[in-house]
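Dear support,

I submitted the protein below through the web form. The confirmation email said the job was done, but the results page showed an empty box. After a refresh the structure appeared. I'm attaching both so you can tell me whether what I see now is the final result or a partial one.
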Amino acid sequence: MSTATAAPWRSLFLEHVEGMKSPEFTLSTIRRVPASRYGMDAGSGDGQGFVQVPRARTCIFRGMWANLAVNPKNDAELNPDCYESELLTFTTDVRMDKMPELWEGQPSGGVEGSSGGGGPVEAVFWADAPMVQWRVRGRAYVLAPDVESSEGGRAARDVLQARMRRTGAEGEGDAKGGWSWARELTAHFGNLSPGMRGSFRNPPPGTPVAVPVGDDSLALGQKVTDLQDAVARRHFRVVVIVPFEVDRCDLSDPERGRRWLYRFAGGEGSEKPVYPGGQVVDGWEKVETWP
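What the results page shows now:
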């Protein structure tokens, strides 16, 4: 487990995000593509005809891992409230084009049915009311139905659990109620509206509409009320971002913008600062920088 103390940026970040009309953020990833798609010759890029290019898309923040906000319309069984974290979550469809980008240095084959990942990402939030930009940099892990049974699931669980904190006494809650990774995934699915759940029964995202779908279960505009719907759950994923750097830029005062960088220092607070003027607090180094 990580340090028993919350990260020094956590409460303010959540305050700002909860004040947004919609908790949207831009997720940036890196993708390896043929150089020819960008008008470059075959010898460009890595020498094998490929280049690393940025990709970005808008996602919805679904809360911190193990701290799922309760939706009164959610009929899913919830885990006992015995953990908290600074691990950002969002949900996605495994068929989305971004999925291979979350598997750093690993082949995309086999990604559709498995947990794992670890690719580098950046999540950028703009909180309009306080005029603060948050940039969260870290690694993303994909949690699939095999999270409790596969090698990829075990590896992802080990990384995430190292950054989860108990909120009760040792063994309290998870020992009594059996805190379950699979149950947490179902709770995330249940927190979505029936229409949003139904989107996981859409035709394959990004494929030409002229190509026959070939599956009568896939169509736009469906609503799903069954939390174990086989088709939707096969495509549904929770993605967890493990942050290593958090950049906060406060532009609320036009004459005196301020900016801070937080660097994960190991969680125990034993590391020395690496930046001039930096100070390690609760396992994170904090340093003020020019905006």
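Response: this is the final, complete result; the empty box was a page-load delay. The chain has one domain: 10-208+230-289.
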